Amino acid sequence: MNRNIMFALAGGLVAGFLAGYFVGAGSAKETTVTTAAPTAGVVLPAPSLGGGMGAGVAAPGQLPPGMGLPNAEVQARIIRMEGIVKAEPKNHDAWVGLGNDYFDSHQPQKAVDAYAKALALKPDDPDILTDQGVMYRQLNQFDKAIANFQKAGKINPAHVPSLFNLGIVYAGDLHKPDEAAKAWNKVLVIAPNSEQATQARQLLAQLNKGGAPR
């Protein structure tokens, strides 16, 4: 499964700082349960950079504007995937697919639980750890999000999405700009020409101007 676009989720911070920057590997594409675990994709620019979800993105623990129950197509797919994992509880890819659908339909606790089942079967997947970390952040469980991103980085030290997200939580949620700067500077070293690096430079500039969230 190739999840090429990662959701720019809620920043929800004062003065628009970090709004829309949060990165996951969620995708609205239908899951094929016979495929391998996903690879990390491309982060959408934040609204301030001309992309992302636009104005009014949600704060942690809130749904983005206009987002409620999943639409009929997604709900039908969720029901189908729930049936698969009930019949095949050791089907790793089905748990990943179900987690993705919960992620995309903004059901963070269910996504966390589904990803946990997948990780119990294959524990060393930095992409799944990152997606679960995004959902932990949506639940305001920032320490667990940090732990996931750090574990993903230990598994793959060149895993840019987990590093980028680590900076987001440190800066936007835990108000630790020095730790955020460390994470984003690592992004610049590992992948200097990536979209994440472009955004990291913007965010570092904000930190240097004293733009860290209050």
Write the layout of secondary structure elements.
Elements: E1 5-6, E2 8-9, E3 22-23, E4 42-43, H1 72-87, H2 92-104, H3 108-121, H4 126-138, H5 142-155, H6 160-173, H7 177-190, H8 195-208
Parallel strand pairs: 1-4
Antiparallel strand pairs: 2-3
Helix pairs in contact: 1-2, 2-3, 3-4, 4-5, 4-6, 5-6, 6-7, 7-8
Top keywords for this entry?
214 residues; Serine Threonine Protein Phosphatase 5, Tetratricopeptide repeat; two-stranded parallel sheet; two-stranded antiparallel sheet
State the gist of this model:
The protein has 214 residues and is mainly α.
Radius of gyration: 16 Å
CATH superfamily heading = Tetratricopeptide repeat domain
CATH class: Mainly Alpha
Subunit organisation of the chains: single chain
Number of domain modules? 1
Strand order in the sheet with the most strands = 1-4
Principal-axis shape = elongated
Q: Estimate percent helicity.
A: 40-55%
